[in-house]
Structure formats: C-alpha cells, structure tokens
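Hi U.,

Before I forget, here's the chain from the pilot set. I'm dumping it here mostly so it's searchable later in email.
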Amino acid sequence: MASGRTFHLSVFLAFLAVGCASSRRATPVATTQPSTQFSSIALNRDVDAFVEPPLGWTPQPLKSSSRHTHQIWLAPSGNTAYGVIHFSLPFPVGHDLVLWGFLREMKRTQGESILVSKEWDKNLEALRFVADGGVYRVRVNLFVDGWRGWAVYAGTLRDLEISREELELAEIARDHTIVGSKAANR
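Structure:
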C-alpha cells in the first residue's frame, strides 16, 4: 500500500514540475509600486487564483495535465516570468513533502536542483522557497490546502543577467496572487 502511495505521489510531482521545466491565502501585500504597472486583479479559473500580472507581460499557452494547470506570463525580455501552478494531490500532504517532490522533479527535468532557502511565512500560511534548477532560479510561494496546492513564482534564467526591475515586478505579482478558497470568496 505504501509503495502505491509513493508511486502516485511521484506521478503527481512529475505533473507538477512539467510546467516548471519550461518556467494566498492572505491579503495582497502593500507595495510602493504604482498600480499602473499591473493589470487589474482578475480571477484566472484555470489556476483557481486571482492574478495581477505586470502590464506588457505576455501570457503563454496554458500547460495542463489531469493533475495540474500552469499559467506563465513572460516579461518583454523573455528572461523573467511570473507563474501560477495549480495542482491536485493524491492525498493530503504537508508543504515539506510537496517541496521535496518539486525539487526532485526539477532535478529530473533540468539536471540540477538546489534548495537555496526556505522559510515558513505565517502571514501567507505558505512555504516560501528559492531553488536553482539547471536552467531557472524560482522564488516560490507554496500553498497546500488538503487535496490541492499552488506554486506561485517569480522565475529568472540562471545564465543571463537578472533585470532587477522585471524581477521586482514578478515578485510583486507573486505576492499579490490569491489562491483557492480566498480567491473563490473574493
């Protein structure tokens, strides 16, 4: 029975990170950025979240499987991304187990996976982490709610110079994202 659960968790985690290879529950964080740099906050039903992508960022085609949906918005340079991955779990698990699977799949798809930092954010009720894959560095807010979860991230290509302005916009968009039941009640 345990090996069957392990298999299902591995399958789920593979689906979770497939979109990552090409890439709140709390009230949005106040920022000093003018609101004219972001689109109006709107419900994205595909990822079950209210999103507020930066203006001029291009939505990419939705990536999906039976276990996940993944929406990405790319900065004009193409080097920075804001994304939301909504996924289902084979059974309720904790944040650390989902993080472990995320990193394992990142290693499988990018050849490398290094956890740079992680920290529980009690205000968000989420795990914040930074991870380096072979291609991308992702700065993730990870939410788990029963049988489903979300990875909301700001990502950059590792082999190119980071645009501080683009990264800041992606991080603000990430922190303004509202997921799950909070999004449904908005």
